Fold each of these.
Amino acid sequence: MDTNTTIATRPVVILMVEDNPTDVLIAKEGLLSAKMLSTVHVADDGMYAMDFLHRKGKYANAPRPDLILLDLNMPRMNGREVLAEVKADDNLKNIPVVILTTSKAEEDISKAYALHANCYISKPVDFNEFAKVVQTIQAFWFNVVTLPPGTNL
Amino acid sequence: MNAPAATATRPIIILMVEDNPTDVLIAKEGLLSAKLLNTLHVADDGMYAMDFLHRRGKYTDAPRPDLILLDLNMPRMNGREVLAEIKADENLKNIPVVILTTSKDEEDISKAYGLHANCYISKPVDFDEFTKVVQTIQAFWFCVVTLPPGGEI
């Protein structure tokens, strides 16, 4: 998948919102082993994700992510709530949100699209498959798609 | 890009909204040469697209598309208007909309994401590149992504 467009001249910034440390590790490995220069930030739950996006608390210097990978089931504030907040916020709604979850519940899938998730991807259980999916997400969103402009660095 | 999820048990239905016959031809070739079983419907402009989606006029028997490929600049009703209508319609907003256009205008890109386009892709001018992009779109959206349920046949 080596198509044109959106040539990144700086590391792409990915915010991964995920409470499972194993999944974070696999995803990070997948993302960082790709040829693309990328920075992966991790928020352990929805509250941290919103703090990151609003540059609150320990995230005062957080960059604006180019892409958000969002788990659905997390403590404190779940992915549905994060998605709803991001997509209702005029400053944030342009950031593509990829739902990445083990849930295959039809209601979750349907609700996520209705809340304007940019796409919904089921996490494969197999580690290698999962790493591959993460790389495919990265390749598609950063090599094929034209991302929204206005990312202030 | 042979990841899991969303295994199609029936042909995947794509609605391409595009007024340029050459682009339609290239896209058709790209889509149908892939190993995936799919049906491609074409609407020449935004008005026809809305008729198709609402099963009006000559489209009374139209199926619900699994994915919409939407050009921006078209006569009668442009892609921005189509996108706004789809994403404001409770019955249609779940359908992923991929903007596929020659425009690289920052305002177009930004507005499309603001109107909840699922992704924005610039059409390569080169024919082979364009075919490849169409195949990549197909592979990502139908082999990696889990599409919303409820597309009644």
Note: Confidence is low (pLDDT under 50) at residues 1-8 of chain B.
Amino acid sequence: MAAVPLLLGVLTLVFLLVQAAPGDPFQFEPAAGVSGSAQRTLRHAFEADRPLAVRYLDWMRGFLVGDLGVSFTYRRPVLDLIREAGANTIVLAGLATLLQFLLGTAAGLAAAGSRRRWVDRILTGLSSTVYSLPSFWLGLVLVWLFSVRLGWLPVSQMRSVDAAEHSLAWRLVDFLRHLALPCLALTLPAAGGIALYVREEVRSQLGRAFVQAARARGIGEKAIVMRHSLRGALLPVVNLFGLALPGILGGSVVLEVLFAWPGMGRLAYQAVLAKDEPLVLGCAWVTSVLVVAGSIMADLMSSWVDPRAREETA
Amino acid sequence: MGGSAGEGRDGVRRSIRGGFLASACLGPIILAAVLAPWLAPLPPDLQEDVAGARYLPPLTRAYALRLSSERVRVLVSLRATPTGWMGVRNGRREEFTASEVLGAPVSRFYLLGTDSLGRDLTSRLLFGIRHTLVIAVLSAILAIFLGVAVGAVAGLAGRGWDEGLMRGVDVLRCMPRLLLVLVCASLFPPSTLLLVLILGATTWTGLARILRGQMRVLARSDLAAAARASGASPLRVALRHLLPQATPLLAVNTALRLADIILLESALSLLGIAAPPPAVSLGGVMASGSDALAEAWWIAAWPGLLIAGMVFALRSAGARFLRLPDPPSVA
């Protein structure tokens, strides 16, 4: 329940920040055909001419009833915009997050559990290299290789311009071809970080007494890793996953901008640039709710993985 | 930590190797940043001849012919002809009579190529490293200062302070970081100072939380009790007795924070939030290269490699202090 004042604080802070930003979305260059009163009319039409306190209260009320206002730039309800962009982002970043954790955990386990030293060394070296790469630089490298040099995959956008004229199967393949590069660029660096983390966690579990006891009982090394140390190592990974959930909607701003992917990150970025107040606030609202939901989810998941945590909360 | 003796030795050996690798990466980079004005073959924003020198690939040998005090022509494969000079400029052959040219041609060697305005990338990157490091170090100092101040006060000053400060930290942690940065950046005209403030102000909350935890434990330790019993004031206990205990934590955190800030700075450059033009940063060079990927891969390639090298080195230096890595920043 601590989440409610937390959200309230976040929203108020964002509201004040956006109010403090200079520039006016209703300011026009004087031009032919635009009268001075157009500004006032527009401001009135978007209800932006009311006093600050009234707008603040109205806006707070809006979150309760699910009315996030109308975007200044798109002239459409913010909720619709967020719904569309959110769906696009969930496909891209959701898939990437899933792959990050699958790849990362698998690589970390393989590195920690391997008897052969070179396997561990190669996997660890690869992970720490990949983890150091700026994700959008990786994106640039991938675009250069697969789009510019080889010409296999499209440079940006979510679907081809003429996609509507084709069959469903064609459109699906087209979509996947557009998805491949941004998804890969988003997946690899974080997967490297997770791999290193899992490896260290499993390694630290392997030194513990219950693992030595298992070893003394003659249990094979693979079984020790999979059955005994994985469980202890999974706990922080699960926590990490909860913390990563909000990043699914907000964390890929740069890659979405780079690949012109019409998702939440790009929407928020453009909204800030255009000083599209309702849209910025709406995006902030969605992401903050997700952060809070993510940490609650992490708690739930860790009590599912770890009985000790369950007893503490009960 | 802990583990059997054999594993411990292995860990020490590994961390020494990691430290060696880190300093092998970081040493030259820091040296390059310090010596940039002396190492750079050309001024970083020198645009001698935009059309002639643009997008020259790495390892290009070119020559600058001065035609007048402002006009310079940059040519490759320059040859002397009976009447003057002949060379290739922007893919076309051009000839100049000896009377047109002031002085002798000056040799230019573009080790890492040139950018879209014909500027030497070697020089730009040297100054870019310098600027990026200055930004990163200043922001990290700010972040560490904020993190230590808030963390220590919350951990030591009693329940009310703790509650209030930590709620504030939670609010900040719930803000989508990039959105916060974007909004802040749109508030003020771009400058290096603003960038430092933004980067510093958005990266300290993690440290504050960790430090608060450590301070709370330390405050109940014998160490604190002994210091208090010897008559030290609460402030002195905190500053002289408890905070020094957090030095390893701070060392690790500084290295990891620097790495994060360097990555964040380069991401912001791509979104158009950077120090304004005369300043060159690695992220800025990389962002400018993203538009010219087909013509000149090298513009984006070098800064990316440098950033990756710096981040790699800083993180292995951090891991050297503490064997368990920070939870990776996933977002």
Note: Residues 121-156 of chain B form the longest helix (36 residues).
